[in-house]
Amino acid sequence: MGLVKYNKLVRDNIPETIEADGKTCICKTLQPQEYLTALNSKLIEETNEYLLSQSDDELADILEIIYAIVKAKRISFDSIEKLRQNKASTNGSFDNKILLKAVFDSNTPADETVLKQEYSMISQHEFICSVDVQSETISRYLRDGLIVPDAIFPVTPQKFQNYYFIDTVEKYARQYGWNRINDENRKDVFMRMVRKMDMSYSYKPILLKGILNYADDAGVCRLTDIVKYFKDFFDARRECGLLVEKQKSIYLNACITNQQILQNILIYPYRRFSDIGALHLSEDRACIYVDSTVWTNLTHFEIREISRVCDQKLQSYFDMIDNPVRMAEITADDVEMSDYNGLYDIDFFDMETLSDPIKLLTALEQPGT
Fold this sequence. Notes:
Layout: H1 14-20, H2 32-53, H3 56-72, H4 77-91, H5 112-119, E1 121-123, H6 124-129, H7 135-143, E2 151-156, E3 159-165, H8 166-176, H9 186-196, H10 203-214, E4 220-222, H11 223-239, H12 258-267, H13 269-274, E5 279-281, E6 287-290, H14 292-295, H15 300-321, H16 324-330, H17 351-354, H18 357-365
Antiparallel strand pairs: 1-3, 2-3, 4-6, 5-6
Helix pairs in contact: 2-3, 10-11, 10-15, 11-12, 12-18
């Protein structure tokens, strides 16, 4: 005759079921403390079985054991439910599916290497570069509570850096109908932007033509060369008696400084291409360079196309602003450096920052902006 040893707590009707099958079982009625110990062991056993099977039956077994533990400890179910409700009221439930991954001290600055490598997080600047909407849109959605960062780290008492999980970025992209930008499609996104190139001023095609004129084989050009290109472009129009720009443009001032030109370039045309990750500032803040996923994949035909499109856009733009009727239609939409608050949060660019190109360059590259 076979003998099978169990030594485990079973439901009340199990011995009767065994004997009805013609078998004999040896059972013991446990003392209160033994019973509670056995219930705890049974809870572990049934929990492990549920983790393996994900079965509703195993969940029911777990609930039955919890009921038995409550009875064994002589606790009322009402008191347990009240404790549960109090904890839910204080700490919440688990409805929001939150996984706490790490806690940083309030004085600990963000370590981008740790956040990216260990937690697969990206900065807000990288978020902006990975979707086909402008930075102002992301800022507005943040203000309206439509986007919530996964982590916020202090940089200064007044400034913070926002970070996001990749899954979070993909969730918002799906939710709001944004297209994702990555290394594989960034050049195509850039070319579509060039071909469309909506313009409030002439600055975007001038910036692109300056880059094509001065960029080295790696797509890098010095900011001083770009500033000179802008200055020479508008000076040439002035000397030829052509319309220099629209009424609000700072380039109407023949005495405009290189610092003002640099501010204008960084606040508007550079920012537009930076938002899709196509343009970057060098670490020493002396150069603009085209992202390698764009520059190295541009064909000679596409480079010529960029130059041709820029020339066409500039011709169409200056024809338009030279037309009084068309000018009246677009005047209300003018945005210029003096109106920068319409482009960016005032927290991002205060007047001290705007007056200092180095501070401005640093602020533009901050992940939290």
